[in-house]
Amino acid sequence: MVRELCAVCVCVLGLGLAGCPGGGGSGGAAAGKAGGEGAAAGSGEVVARVGDVTITLAEFEDQLNQQNPLIRARYNSLEQKKKLLDSLVEREAMVLEARRLGLEQDPDMQRGYKKILARHLVNTEFNGKVVKDLDVPEAELQKYYDENRERYNAPEKVRLYLIFLEAPAADAAKRKAAKAKAAELHTKLKAAPTDRRLFLELAREQSADKLTSQVGGDTNFKTHDQLVELYGAPVADAGFALKAANDLASVLETDKGLFLLRQAGRQAALDLPLEKVKGQIRTTLFAKARGDAYKAWVDGVKTKSGVQVFDEVLSKAKVDTAGAPGGGLAAPPRELPRPGKPEALKVPAGAIVPAPGGPGAEEPAPAKAP
């Protein structure tokens, strides 16, 4: 029962940090202690009272106007306003009941409060202040573009499937047998132009090309120069001459043997100037700057706090593996909140929610050619 109530209290506190040690909000310790002092200080007329805690008109309007604009439009009638006020009254009543039961000191409550407070610190001090000052200079964008130019500028590529029958020109007998086998295979493939599986099986069984035979003859996407380097100019020329997927080339003879080539795809040349990918690069560099800034900010917080870790004591910690598969931990330990990895707990209304793209965020894929 205590744990259930604590969970409720944590959710309640997440809406406004009400009732937490040092917390604020309409249901915070200060409001509960002062009662009518808030109204006397000019916070507005009182619209409801729960015990010695007041909810003023200004506080109600603040809660109301934090709603999504579409939802906010529903509160024009008194009836709808009462529904929102009822939820605020319910929250305050729950906080008072939690205090009466002494749940503020419950260990589960304290752990939940610490998580909420840590998240609120990240939102207000890091996301709300440090991140706002981050910027990516134009020079950094140009530098990144220059260092990664191959991502934005690349020649045309073609993807081939090939079968290579080794038959040196000097070996007449082997050459003759290879020609017969190549003609046989070509006839089978030409009769089934869209049967990809057939080509894969024949390549695995017949091809002597060590680079591709085990993957069904797939060369993956290659530039003309790359194909020349791997197989010679005749293969590169024949491969690039195939116009559409599944096009099959005539049997190609080279000094080393015979090739059967099938086109599987083509990538247009990529030529993206900096102006077209500047936004993408800025996102990438901003994510890195944000991650670096977060680490530096956390290090500063730790330094101010005077952190000490005692490994000799830590090594004595016993892990209860009962019920865990394979004797391991039932679930990985949760880390403290960090940008891009928000805890599944509510944060105070109006807090800045960290956007994706914190430390560890993946770099966006390069833009496609228009």
Account of the protein in words:
- With 370 residues, the protein is of the alpha+beta class.
- Helix content is 50%, strand content 11%.
- The chain has 15 helices and 8 strands.
- It has helices spanning 2-16, 29-34, 37-43, 57-65, 69-72, 78-100, 107-130, 138-147, 149-152, 172-191, 196-206, 224-231, 233-241, 274-305, 311-314, and strands spanning 46-50, 53-56, 153-154, 157-166, 218-223, 252-253, 257-267, 270-271.
- Strands 5-4-7-6 form a 4-stranded antiparallel beta sheet, sandwiched between helices.
- Strand 1 (46-50) and strand 2 (53-56) form a beta hairpin.
- The radius of gyration is 34 Å and the shape is elongated.
> Span between N and C termini?
61 Å
CATH level-1 class of the largest domain: Alpha Beta
The radius of gyration over CA amounts to 34 Å
What is the CATH topology descriptor of the largest domain? Chitinase A, domain 3
Cross-sheet strand order for the largest sheet: 5-4-7-6
In total, how many domains does the architecture comprise?
A: 3
Strand content: 5-15%
Tally of extended strands?
8
Largest sheet: 4 strands, antiparallel
- Which blocks of ≥5 consecutive residues have pLDDT under 50? 1-42, 340-370
Note the total helix count: 15
Shape verdict: elongated
The averaged pLDDT comes out at: 82
H/E element sequence: HHHEEHHHHHHEEHHEHHEEEHH
Helix content: 40-55%
